[in-house]
Each structure stands twice: as C-alpha cells, then as structure tokens.
C-alpha cells in the first residue's frame, strides 16, 4: 500500500477567497473517489487557528506504485491539478509504503 499525502499553501491573502479556493480543491479531489484506483481519498481544510499552517491536505492510499502512477496521469486528476495549481502558492508531498 502506498500512502500519498499532499499539502498546499494557498496564494490568496483574502480569507473569503482562500476559503472558496480550499472548498474548490476539496470538492474536486473528493470528486475523484470511485473514478480513480485510489483505495481512499480524504481531503481536509485547516481550521485556521494556527498561524503558519498549510491550508489544505490530501491524504490518500493506493494499492501499489502502479495505481499511484495511473492516478497522476488520469485526465480527471490532471483537471483537478490544473485548478489547484491556479490557486496554490506552494505544494508539499510525501509518498511512502505502508
């Protein structure tokens, strides 16, 4: 099993826009459930209570490296990633075997 965790820091300084962007990321990534070979897709939006936290996190599991690789190039993921790149200023990712 491969765990794929990605965090984003959003670009907007405006709290309302940042909340809308976070909701857009969440809905797009959660919309991939059942479309891709992911065992699990969970998306969380930071509570905003701690200065310096990243804004959105994706926590997902894939059966193996081949399923993760297929996810990366799947058209539905590519479309979601394009939106995310348009609103994020930074991205951090960790993939590890469980």
From TrEMBL:
This is Dabb family protein. Transmembrane segments: none annotated. It comes from the Bacteria. InterPro entries: Dabb (IPR013097), Dimeric_a/b-barrel (IPR011008). Residues 2-96 form the Stress-response A/B barrel domain.
């Amino acid at each position: 099993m491969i765990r794929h965790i990605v965090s984003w820091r959003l670009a907007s300084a405006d709290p309302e826009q940042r909340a809308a962007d976070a909701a857009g990321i969440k809905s797009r990534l959660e919309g991939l459930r059942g479309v891709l070979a992911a065992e699990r897709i969970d998306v969380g939006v930071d509570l905003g209570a701690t200065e310096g936290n990243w804004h959105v996190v994706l926590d997902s599991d894939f059966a193996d490296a081949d399923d993760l690789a297929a996810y990366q190039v799947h058209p539905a993921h590519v479309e979601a990633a394009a939106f995310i790149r348009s609103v994020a200023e930074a991205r951090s990712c960790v993939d590890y075997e469980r």
